[in-house]
Amino acid sequence: MSSSDSINDPDPLSAAPPAAPDALLHAEPGVQTQQARLQSAILLLLGLGLFFGLPFVLSIGSVVFLPPVTAIVLTIVLAPAADRLVRLGLPNMLASFLALLLLIAVVVVALSLILQPAYDMVDQVPAMARRVSLRFAELRSNLAWMNDINRQIARLTGSTATREVVVASPSVIEQVAFATPSVLIEVLLTFLLTFFMIESRIRTKRRLLFDRHSFGASVRIARVIRAVQDRVASYILTVAQINLGVGTIVAAGSWAFGFSAPIMWGGLAFVLNFLPYVGPLVMVALLTLVGVGTASTVALGLLPALAFLGLHAVEANFVTPSILGARLTLNPVSILISISYFSWIWGTLGALLSVPILLTLTALVDHLGRPNLVGFLFGEPLFQPGLIAQDELRHPEDYAGHEGDMASDETGRPLHSRTSQGA
């Protein structure tokens, strides 16, 4: 072989390397997909660990975490009222104080209408308990044949009666005495945090909007803030108006059935109806207990509870969905999970905060991207595009600009043409 042949006929080994970069380029999308799925899997595991581990931290540190969370929810609800007072010409600090004072006045009036009659009714509890016991004794005598069957089954199985050991626990008065100082401190801290959060809402909003490196990020943050505030505040104010109507009807019905303190029953219905599904069940149990304990027969005692069940069925299936609409309607399963989750962490107050927290998380998820857990198992991305990503694809010009393009009014709301709809 001549030298010219060796030049014109290159070695196959020397010719192989140039094809390697093309192969790597073709393999790059697959590698990127694997990396994205690995990162999504790690994020999913961290989220699950946070979901199951967070309750223990929040429960142990409830004195630290509960007041700020409550203050954030109250700030979201009261911020529109403070903004309206600012637009009327009041100073921001005075508007924030008046909004918080209005909330405190509503709480004090509600508690006085509920607690004072409840204290007066405590004296009647022993008599009602005796009547309830008498009613159940009558029912037990009518079902004596079932007791005979149970005794026969116990004799055949050879089971014996067990001795029950009851451990003495502090009385209710002792528990209240021990808990009162801590509760007062938490309430005072919550109101102070709420006032300072409302008062600083304008500075905080401007800092979140204008301290960004890109104009598009400011637009996204503005729309998320507006969505969360509108959804939570609209839901709570609308449900409060519906519950006020329910409480009024319950108060009138309690007066018609001859219950003492009908205003107290209306206030209980108003407060408990903020807890979907769970609150009405508690109300039915209370009406059944008092009705059976005060009526002459069991059938008459069950009438108030049955009437409230009918009222709740109409309110929950027709009135509330037609007023709230699809935007503020929540999945019943997610509501029950949220109530059980936060009541496990913070008790009764956690149950009351569960729906506002769920609304806040739902608004964030809808705008930033909803998790796609089932699709992720079959190769799809972990998060679906949110409302912001979809809007950015439809209107890319609204997310292009610079920091000087965004001005704000006296409440910190951006004055950009489309941003003003979502700030």
Short structural description:
With 423 residues, the protein is mostly helical. It has helices spanning 3-8, 12-15, 19-60, 62-87, 92-121, 125-142, 144-157, 172-199, 201-210, 215-257, 262-272, 278-294, 298-324, 332-368, 373-377, 387-394.
Description:
With 423 residues, this protein is mainly alpha-helical. Helix 4 (62-87) packs across helix 14 (332-368). The protein is built from 16 helices and no strands. The N and C termini lie far apart (79 Å). 77% of the residues lie in helices and 0% in strands. It has helices at residues 3-8, 12-15, 19-60, 62-87, 92-121, 125-142, 144-157, 172-199, 201-210, 215-257, 262-272, 278-294, 298-324, 332-368, 373-377, 387-394.
Distance between the termini: 79 Å
Beta-strand content bin: under 5%
Number of strands: 0
The average pLDDT value, as a whole number, equals: 76
Protein structure class? mainly alpha
Q: In which range does the helix fraction lie?
A: over 70%
Q: Count the DSSP helices.
A: 16
Q: What pattern of helices and strands is seen along the backbone?
A: HHHHHHHHHHHHHHHH
Shape descriptor: globular
Please summarize the sheet with the most strands: none
Rg of Cα set? 31 Å
Identify low-pLDDT runs. 9-27, 415-423
Write out key terms for the chains shown.
77% helix, globular, single chain, AI-2E-like, mainly alpha, transmembrane, PurR-regulated permease PerM, 423 residues, transmembrane helix
Outline the secondary-structure elements.
Layout: H1 3-8, H2 12-15, H3 19-60, H4 62-87, H5 92-121, H6 125-142, H7 144-157, H8 172-199, H9 201-210, H10 215-257, H11 262-272, H12 278-294, H13 298-324, H14 332-368, H15 373-377, H16 387-394
Helix pairs in contact: 3-4, 3-14, 4-5, 4-8, 4-10, 4-14, 5-8, 5-11, 6-12, 9-10, 10-11, 10-13, 10-14, 11-12, 12-13
Region (Disordered): 399-423
Transmembrane segments: 41-58, 64-82, 94-115, 176-198, 232-257, 263-290, 344-365
Family: Belongs to the autoinducer-2 exporter (AI-2E) (TC 2.A.86) family.
